[in-house]
Amino acid sequence: MNPVLIPGLPWIGNLHQYRYDKIGFLHRIRDRYGDLVRFRLGPHTLILVAHPEDVHRVEMKHARNYVKATNFRAVVGDGIFMSEGEKWKRQRRLIAPTFHHGNLLKMVDDMNAKIGLTLEMIREVDQHPVELSETMKRLAFEIVCEAVFGARSAGDFTSLRQAMVYINRYLTRRFGALLPLPMSFPSPSNLRFHRALRIIDRTVWELIGQKTAESASGSPGEDLLTKMMLARDPETGEGMEPAQLRDEAVSMMLAGFETTGHLIPWVLNELAVHPEHQKRLRTEIDERVGDRIPGAEEAMALPFLNAVIDEALRLHPPVWAWTKRALEEDEIRGHRIRAGSILYLSPYLTHRHPQFWERPEAFDPDRWTPELRERNKLAFFPFGMGPRTCVGRHFALLEIKLILIRILQGWVLQPVPGHRSQGDFQITLGMKKPLILRFIRRSS
């Protein structure tokens, strides 16, 4: 028996409902038809998979049968984000050591330096509204670029960031189109996409050449690109080819700044509109860190900070949905999943599943007890699940924690009257309007 197919219009199916209100549409069909339901977006039929146990089947128990269905290869090539099978396993073996704890510790000073420069700009507008969406995305981009490529001024990467931002918007529009034009067709948006891609390639290839020369001279850097360049597969002794280095560097940039840069404003907004949680977190920081610039060990050892971030990730997962394609026929909850079926998974939806979360729309860091973590370990997967869990998640969490500690050491956050944050469900979950908060210096 196939999962139920919900009614739709001829030719377009449910595309109009989905494009008008993606997450509202998904909530409605899950509430009405259940945790496994088919819907149509133009010529494509997708299967919504909302129950944690079913997500676990797709992402862990039968992970070999399901591959990524959304194609970003035009941008990231065969990087770890898109590769599958033995090639993915090889890339994972080469890349994972670059994010080990010891390497993260070496990045903390550079992260704190970038954070300090951003906070200096905020310090100049004390008690005035501060725009945070672009500020935090720019900070996240500077941090990930320095981590991947090493110490260079932020100005060196301005055109690179602009190219990345455009590509994200372009891909979002393309995936939402009923019949997208071939990328080779010379439309204005396609031409701009290819210009942006040339900027990315030119910059990354230049840096690969620079890092190759540094390594050959006996002075390799501590950046991730150099570490990947020098890495060797423990099973074969082989390293990465230059084209693979390019793909991995672009994958890290695209994943590293859009996700973190979107999450930080959501956390700050939740703290501003819940002053009781903000006060409690500030007290924890004062007691355990004081006014010191935090190190990695301090940042990772703050239990309420961990709960605040987990609750923000539950409500606002930056990668809020993705698709998988079934290689062979399978069965989920007694329903037939045909080979070639496209499955639609959404942490945003599952993180609000009423069978697993009390008051699912409420921001409640206190819910994160050890008992809940164990009970809901399948219902919380902001960084993915199983073997494809994000390899850079510890880097992202450390970055977010350092930023939050530094901000709350210096300021009290207050919402701006009349400003309401709403989700912008593109490839990543941003805000429809830039976040604006008042920063009140604690010394004033």
Q: What would you say this structure looks like, in words?
A:
- The chain contains 17 helices and 13 strands.
- The chain has a domain at 1-77 and 320-381: Uridine Diphospho-n-acetylenolpyruvylglucosamine Reductase, domain 2 (2-Layer Sandwich).
- Helix 6 (101-123) packs antiparallel against helix 7 and helix 9 packs across helix 11.
- The longest helix is centred in the middle third of the chain and has 32 residues, at 242-273.
- The protein has helices spanning 15-20, 22-33, 52-61, 73-76, 85-95, 101-123, 133-149, 158-175, 188-216, 224-230, 242-273, 275-288, 296-300, 303-315, 347-350, 370-375, 393-410; strands spanning 4-5, 36-41, 44-49, 66-68, 129-131, 322-326, 330-332, 335-337, 342-345, 411-415, 423-425, 429-431, 436-441.
- The mean pLDDT is 91.
- Helices cover 52% and strands 12% of the residues.
- Strands 1-2-3-9-6-4 form a 6-stranded mixed β-sheet. A 3-stranded antiparallel β-sheet has the order 5-13-10.
- The protein is globular.
- The chain has 444 residues and is α+β, with helices and mostly antiparallel strands.
Gap between N and C termini: 66 Å
Radius of gyration: 22 Å
Weakly predicted, low-confidence segments: none
Total of DSSP H or I helical runs spanning 4+ residues: 17
**Helix fraction?**
40-55%
Task: Provide the residue-averaged pLDDT.
Answer: 91
Indicate the CATH class of the domain at 1-77 and 320-381.
Answer: Alpha Beta
Judged by helices, strands and strand pairing, the structural class is: alpha+beta
- H/E topology pattern: EHHEEHEHHHEHHHHHHHHEEEEHHHEEEE
Please state the overall shape, judged from the principal axes of the Cα atoms: globular
CATH architecture verdict of the domain at 1-77 and 320-381 = 2-Layer Sandwich
Strand coverage percent:
5-15%
Q: What's the story with the biggest beta sheet?
A: 6 strands, mixed
Number of strands: 13
